[in-house]
């Protein structure tokens, strides 16, 4: 058996654990071979491939990022993209392709599977928003960075009686903001799926001030949306696009901080955590999840169960149809947000 593997979209901690697990399972358990494509789908077009044998994966388990590199190239946006993927599989004599990514990469994988390419999907993203899996690896490590930041910001915000707005990642779903805010003890959390008004955010801060708590930590997801205030004013967040036609986020925290400061006359500062969230050493949870998913993906290929995505459900690794990615991002359930809200203000 010969399999290919690629990592696409934004990188995240745990990808190397996945690659290592897939190689070990293929080579040691099944005496097969693994070919790694570099920089996501780009590697298939440019024929940037390398054999992944056991020496190639030595020492990579604790390393963040991905030894294969990654990109946001979408094969279906390229002229002749589907055929190019099929040709690459034929050229490298592959039985199937393991595709590890978030919404963009897995959506492409789903459409390629429909076009007859034998593919198995593996969910990864720090945003934790892939449907039908309880967690995607990368999220737990990102959460640790966010909680470290909230802890650190507490001591300095308290010393200076400041409001600090911490902007975290999360385009369409506020998993990082809600879980990071809950675990770190944030005083308000603002997400894409539960729009809040600036008026309401200021009221939470006012309540704290009335209780003698003169500092506050506000965690805001980069894709946060806002409701109008009672007087009709709404925080407008200008939208920029990246070269792949996706919204480029970043900056909502500063806009919110300026509004809070103007309304409450309380010094308000902003911290954008940015790519720190995607970097560094994977936590044990992410290493475990990457390893379990890598083994399970190869097992699916061996059984010929293509067109499926490995998934974590209730603690068990299972698989679902790759088509689940058509559901769109998995948002934070109301119950979890309400739990976080118990601690607001
Ligand atoms: O991987 C998902 C993500 O972390 C989003 O939360 C974020 O908006 C995006 O990646 C930014 O990635 P890049 O700037 O590398 O495209």
Would you mind describing this structure in some detail?
The chain is of the alpha/beta class and 345 residues long. The protein has two domains: 2-138 and 282-327, Rossmann fold; 140-278, 3-Layer(aba) Sandwich (Rossmann fold), CATH 3.40.50.460. Helix content is 37%, strand content 18%. The chain has ten helices and 13 strands. The protein has helices at residues 15-29, 42-45, 81-91, 103-114, 139-160, 175-184, 198-210, 252-264, 284-302, 334-341; strands at 2-7, 33-37, 49-51, 96-101, 119-123, 163-168, 188-190, 216-221, 240-241, 247-248, 268-272, 308-313, 316-321. The strands form three sheets. The protein has a seven-stranded mixed β-sheet, sandwiched between helices. Strands 7-8-6-11 form a four-stranded parallel β-sheet, sandwiched between helices. Helix 7 (198-210) links the parallel strand 7 and strand 8 (216-221). Helix 1 packs across helix 9 and helix 5 (139-160) crosses helix 6 (175-184). The longest helix has 22 residues, at 139-160. The N and C termini lie far apart (58 Å).
């Amino acid at each position: 058996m010969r399999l290919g593997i690629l990592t696409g979209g934004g990188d995240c901690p745990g990808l190397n654990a996945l690659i290592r697990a897939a190689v070990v399972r293929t080579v040691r358990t099944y005496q097969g071979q693994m070919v790694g494509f570099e920089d996501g789908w780009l590697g298939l077009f440019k024929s940037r491939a390398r054999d992944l044998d056991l020496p190639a994966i030595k020492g990579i388990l604790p390393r963040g990022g991905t030894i294969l590199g990654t990109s946001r190239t979408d094969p279906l946006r390229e002229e002749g993209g589907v055929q190019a993927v099929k040709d690459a599989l034929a050229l490298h004599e592959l039985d199937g392709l393991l595709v590890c990514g978030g919404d963009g990469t897995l959506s492409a994988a789903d459409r390629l599977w429909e076009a007859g390419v034998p593919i198995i999907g593996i969910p990864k993203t720090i945003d934790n928003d892939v449907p039908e899996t309880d967690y995607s690896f990368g999220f737990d490590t990102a959460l640790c960075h966010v909680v470290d930041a909230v802890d650190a910001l507490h001591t300095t915000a308290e010393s200076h009686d400041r409001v600090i707005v911490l902007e975290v990642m999360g385009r369409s779903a506020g998993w990082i903001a809600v879980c990071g805010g809950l675990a770190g003890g944030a005083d308000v959390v603002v997400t894409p799926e539960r729009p809040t008004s600036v008026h309401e955010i200021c009221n939470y801060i006012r309540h704290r001030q009335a209780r003698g708590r003169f500092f506050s930590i506000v965690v805001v997801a980069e894709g946060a949306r806002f409701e109008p205030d009672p007087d009709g004013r709404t925080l407008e967040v200008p939208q920029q696009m990246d070269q792949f036609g996706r919204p480029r986020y970043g900056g909502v925290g500063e806009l919110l901080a300026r509004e809070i400061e103007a309304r409450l006359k309380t010094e308000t500062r902003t911290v954008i955590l940015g790519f720190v969230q995607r970097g560094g050493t994977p936590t044990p949870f992410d290493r475990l999840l990457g390893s379990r998913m890598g083994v399970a993906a190869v097992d699916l290929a061996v059984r010929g169960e293509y067109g499926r995505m490995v998934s974590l459900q209730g603690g068990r690794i299972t698989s679902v149809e790759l088509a689940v990615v058509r559901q769109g991002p998995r948002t934070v359930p109301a119950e979890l947000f309400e739990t976080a809200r118990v601690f607001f203000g």
